[in-house]
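Quick illustration for those who missed Monday's session on complexes.
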Amino acid sequence: MSGAARNKDANSRNSLYGKDLLDIRDLDKDQIKFLMRRADTMLEALNSRTRLDPLKNMILGKLFFEESTRTRQSFEIAIQKLGGGYTGFNSDKETSVMKGESLADTVKVMSLMYADVLVLRHPYAGAGREAAKHSDVPVINAGDGVGQHPTQALLDMFTLRKEKGKMKDLNIAIVGDLANGRTVHSLAYALAVFNNNITFIAPPELQLPRRILSDLKNNYSISVQKTSSIEAALDVDVIYMTRIQRERFEKPEDYAHFATSYTIDEDFMSKAKSGTIVMHPGSRLTEISPKIDSLPGSVYFRQASYGVPTRMAILESLLVK
Ligand code: NCD
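Prediction with N-carbamoyl-L-aspartate bound:
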């Protein structure tokens, strides 16, 4: 086999079957590219209303110990669009965890009851990895406290692919609560793997954890900057806004102090580089004025919709050889 053919073969093979997806660093560049190509196919099927059933008779078990709108719904839609079904709970109040049951036992029971994949959202960083130790089936981390949110990073990369036509060599400003925002903790690594330059914009107290910043600087060949000035987002290809994460603050007054740190509005966008797109993982609070929702570069609603084809690609890859 020629080098090129071997390479093509490696790129088209599914190396994710049976694996967990707990941290974006679980995936290498080829695996991310593989998922993006599968998500393209899923999007085409969704748009042409083609029926798919590779996950017929498979059941997704939802273990959502924290609230969610987009992530939970898009997993529910994704599994059903692939012919499967789901069960599980949407808040810790619906479970025996309220009676004191451990995460380990909850996971063990779900996986023994013939669920084919578990999707976990939990308030503690590291809960995904802990859950995976007790599961016989793949576990997907759908957000663990201030830790990781790898499926969001994948749908964010898919959004770049669809809206900018590429996932590499872009200048990206990531804005908001970078200390607590798990979407950023995953996305930053995915962007780094594809050689994107990142400017982290946050109040000094809410900057990206130092360990992640130095990891990016030392282990990836990208340019990384940090600042508290939103002006730095005027000259980039992509502005990724995030909310201040209220649930991670101990004191309400601390949250109130930072809540409205940044807002981008019509005036800001009129000064921004032409062709800039604005992304947001949701939930949007005051960081993006609704007045810019109808601008062509405001892609955050479409971004949420890309959660469905992306999660279809993830589920199919973990569950079908
Ligand atoms: C994010 C989360 O829960 O981390 N939401 C989501 O999954 N789309 C971001 C957030 O809530 O700020």
